[in-house]
Write a structure and sequence with these properties.
The complex is a heterodimer of chains A (454) and B (172).
Chain A lengths: L1 H4 L3 H14 L4 E4 L5 E5 L3 E4 L11 H11 L3 E3 L17 H7 L4 E10 L2 E9 L6 H4 L16 E10 L3 H17 L8 E7 L7 E7 L6 E6 L3 E6 L5 E6 L6 E6 L5 E5 L5 E6 L5 E6 L6 E6 L5 E3 L7 E6 L5 E6 L6 E6 L6 E2 L7 E6 L5 E8 L2 E8 L5 E3 L7 E5 L5 E8 L2 E8 L5 E4 L5 E7 L5
Parallel strand pairs in A: 2-4, 2-5, 3-5
Antiparallel strand pairs in A: 1-30, 5-6, 6-7, 8-9, 8-31, 9-10, 11-12, 12-13, 13-14, 15-16, 16-17, 17-18, 19-20, 20-21, 21-22, 23-24, 24-25, 25-26, 27-28, 28-29, 29-30
Helix pairs in contact in A: 3-6
Chain B lengths: L1 H20 L3 H8 L5 H29 L2 E3 L12 H14 L3 E6 L6 H21 L7 E7 L10 H7 L1 E6 L1
Parallel strand pairs in B: 2-3
Antiparallel strand pairs in B: 1-4, 2-4
Helix pairs in contact in B: 1-3, 4-5
Classes of the chains: A mainly beta (454), B alpha+beta (172).
InterPro entries (chain B): Bact_OuterMem_StrucFunc, OMP_bac, OmpA-like, OMPA-like_CS, OmpA-like_sf, Pal, Pal_lipo_C
Membrane topology (chain B): Lipid-anchor
Subunit structure (chain B): The Tol-Pal system is composed of five core proteins: the inner membrane proteins TolA, TolQ and TolR, the periplasmic protein TolB and the outer membrane protein Pal. They form a network linking the inner and outer membranes and the peptidoglycan layer.
Chain lengths: 454, 172
């Protein structure tokens, strides 16, 4: 958020021009039958000035697209809406009940000065006339009409051209949470590696909003870039770069661009993973002869070795409680997922189904681990319930890798191959919703979903 | 160590000279077989045959040294039996010349990138290990893994994967 808000308008315009050509766009490839119908009414536009400058984006469309992309909602086509209210007193509750929608969003974008806007939006539940009492809307902030009892969300925000889209994602998060009880993850970002083999610097580490818009470049190189991962505060990225001829781990502050080389040991340096509190980083180093898990104290740079085995041990992911890590090891002959305590001790095997399980990630809620699971020669995304141990294959694509879970644990983003192109894809935690984010230029891979950015 | 390298270099030089001189066998034979002695004629023939064999061997080795890539099965670091001879020839060449090599390990795109980085290193180390058994000093070998990040063939087919599961011997 911080690094988005503070950009100069001029710079923003430049980036927009770039984004138009290069942004990653999202297509839903498999929807859910049980997606809930909602209505998002196009917002009314008002301007005090004589020269009306339309807002840079369609606020209602940002919200509708976000809700659709969650897989849980099916926004009704604009042409089928019974009316176009812009404030609570305009709302005809019966008309929306007849349409049969679980929620109605409407609002006003008011231009207060060139490039500055006041955005007001409401969410109502047509079926619940006590909704306002169950919401956090302060009494007295809405007109005393019957319709007001249906209010679930009532907001007014001051935004500008810079953060207009971002404000739309925040609004979508508020609406999503009011409708599901679960925090939304639309106002988040994705880091990924884009490869254009014909470019002078083919390897790019980019960051875009969760819907693929506002792509910005973080680092470019002539040599491969791997394994980007976010710091828990969302301000930094750790990644592996081959710029010095072999794999080393760097940490880069996104806003300033400042980079620090933090692991350049003999052998390879790979698979960085920040601890949940951000004070430590798990990594895999082969400096002692073969790949082992280490934890680096980021303040002192001191390493603690966690595994001792001649096999491959790699791909650490922190348990959200910060006390243990899961990792991939082929100590049993084929790669499987194991767990090891930060306090040390033996590793426990976690996966038992299938001959190849690797690249496991803990969902932030700590209830599920997701992994790459080989089945009949194909590599799919699979989820394993921590309590029951049940493993469910979520995808039909065959070259899935680099899994990353949304901060609200609702969705997994991953890299796969579609046709002959390397693309990003997303699947809901239950496997029932799928979307694809093809690259317009080259190939995209190694996605990493940011934590909540607020 | 340095002595043995020099010795081998001398040996190589001698072999090379011997190979070169086979281009003018006529002069050699007329000079030494004036008497039409049957025994020396057979000797010369044997010598010529030996020289031809040495030349063939030299050419075979030169051709093998041109080939600097070996390939692997999926999720395996086992060197295929058909590559043993190639690696022996490289090992002897590295040992004889004192050259340094980087062994670049690579994997195909299947499975996860971080596991594949480890797999690429394991493949390169498997080659390094074999070279050491042929007498190459560890200080002449550097192992670098690129995992699946630097494919020889960027395609997504069985053919591309075969080409990408490899170790490249890079002479420095």
């Amino acid at each position: 958020m911080k690094h988005i808000c503070k950009k100069l308008v001029v710079l923003w315009l430049g980036l927009t021009a770039f984004a138009v050509n290069a942004e990653v766009q999202i297509y839903i490839t498999e929807g859910r039958d049980d997606a809930r119908p909602v209505a998002v009414v196009p917002f009314k536009f008002e301007s005090a000035s004589e020269v009306k400058v339309e807002p840079p984006h369609d606020f209602a469309k940002i919200i509708a697209d976000d809700l659709r992309r969650s897989g849980k909602f099916k926004p009704v086509e604009t042409a089928e809406l019974p009316q176009s209210p812009s404030q609570i007193t305009d709302v005809d509750i019966d008309a929306w009940k007849e349409l049969g929608v679980d929620g109605v969003v409407y609002g006003v974008v008011k231009e207060t000065a060139p490039g500055k806007y006041m955005v007001s939006y409401d969410l109502i539940d047509p079926y619940n006339d006590k909704a306002v009492m169950e919401s956090s809307i302060p009494s007295g902030s809405y007109p005393l009409v019957d319709q007001s009892f249906h209010l679930m969300v009532l907001k007014t925000k001051l935004v500008n051209s810079d953060n207009f889209r971002w404000a739309g994602h925040i609004a979508a998060d508020e609406i999503y949470e009011a409708l599901t009880g679960e925090r939304g993850a639309f106002a988040t970002q994705i880091a990924y590696v884009q490869v254009d083999r014909l470019a002078a610097k083919p390897y790019n580490l980019n960051v875009a909003d969760s819907d693929g818009f506002n792509q910005t470049n973080v680092f470019s190189s002539k040599k491969p870039i791997m394994s980007p991962t976010w710091s828990p505060d969302g301000n930094k990225l750790a990644y592996v770069s081959f710029e010095n001829g072999r794999s080393e781990i760097f940490v880069q502050t996104i806003a300033s661009g400042q980079r620090e080389l933090i692991a350049s040991y003999k052998g390879f340096n790979s698979a960085p993973a920040w601890s949940p509190d951000g004070s430590k980083m798990a990594m895999v180093l082969s400096k002692d002869g073969n790949p082992e898990l280490y934890v680096m104290d980021l303040a002192t740079k001191r390493l603690t070795r966690l595994t001792r085995h001649y096999s491959i041990d790699t791909e650490p992911s922190w348990n959200p409680d910060g006390k243990s890590l899961i990792f991939t090891s082929d100590r049993g002959g084929k790669p499987q997922i194991y767990s090891v305590s930060l306090a040390g001790g033996d590793a426990d095997r976690v996966t038992f189904e299938g001959r190849y399980n690797a690249g496991a990630e803990f969902a932030p809620d700590g209830k599920t681990i997701v992994m790459v699971h080989q089945n009949n020669g194909n590599f799919h995304v699979a989820a394993q319930d921590i309590d029951t141990g049940n493993l469910t294959v979520l995808t039909k694509t065959s070259l899935d890798e680099s899994l990353s879970v949304a901060p609200n644990s609702s969705m997994i983003i991953f890299s796969t191959v579609d046709g002959q192109q390397k693309v990003l894809s997303a699947v809901s935690m239950d496997g029932r919703f799928k979307a694809r984010l093809p690259a317009n230029v080259g190939e995209v891979k190694a996605p990493a979903w940011s934590p909540y950015i607020l | 160590m340095k002595r043995s390298v020099q010795l081998l270099l001398a040996l190589f030089a001698a072999l090379a000279l011997a190979a070169c001189s086979t281009t003018e066998p006529a002069d050699d034979t007329t000079d030494t077989t004036v008497q039409q002695d049957d025994g020396s004629d057979a000797e010369a023939e044997a010598l010529a045959r030996q020289r031809a064999a040495e030349e063939a061997e030299r050419q075979r080795i030169a051709a093998l040294l041109e080939n600097t890539t070996i390939y692997f099965d999926f999720d395996s670091d086992a060197i295929r039996s058909g590559d043993m001879e190639l690696l022996e020839v490289h090992a002897k060449h590295i040992q004889a010349t004192g050259k340094k090599v980087i062994l670049e390990g690579h994997a195909d795109e299947r499975g996860t990138p971080e596991y594949n980085l480890a797999l690429g290193e394991r493949r390169a180390k498997s080659v390094a290990q074999l070279m050491r058994t042929y007498g190459v000093s560890g200080s002449q070998i550097e192992v670098i893994s690129f995992g699946e990040e630097s494919p020889a063939n960027p395609g997504h087919t069985e053919q591309a994967w075969q080409e990408n599961r490899r170790v490249e011997i890079k002479y420095q």
